[in-house]
Amino acid sequence: MRLATEEDTRAIRDALWELHSYAKQYNWALEVDFDAGSSAVADCVAEGNAYIVDGFLVLVAVFLPWYSKGRVLQEWLVLKLSEGGDINEVPYALERIAKERDCSLIITADSSPVSIMARTYLGNGFAPLTKSFYRRVP
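-> structure tokens emitted (138 positions)
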């Protein structure tokens, strides 16, 4: 596990383009914008909130919920950057990041239609937390 750097930009942009091309076919991918997504990910890299974990890009943020005294590590995105790699390394990396950032809880999600991350998280000791819903505004 390591922090993502400017040297990772090409691989990240290529993977984001694949994600963009794939996601825009789904109704829940609201107003998909490649440039906005690329910019947001570049900000995460610059702010130290992007990690490379065994060939996967992992974006995180730390926040303090209104209902808690404990800091929470939020996983925002897991994106495959290269062939190979073990997706099961991501939960371990998140735990390490959470400890390094003095967080007492990790929150993740999986919006993929095939639930790759959900299966990975469940298989690595994570428990379901809530259900999310969406509705387009006419």
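The first helix runs from residue 9 to 23.
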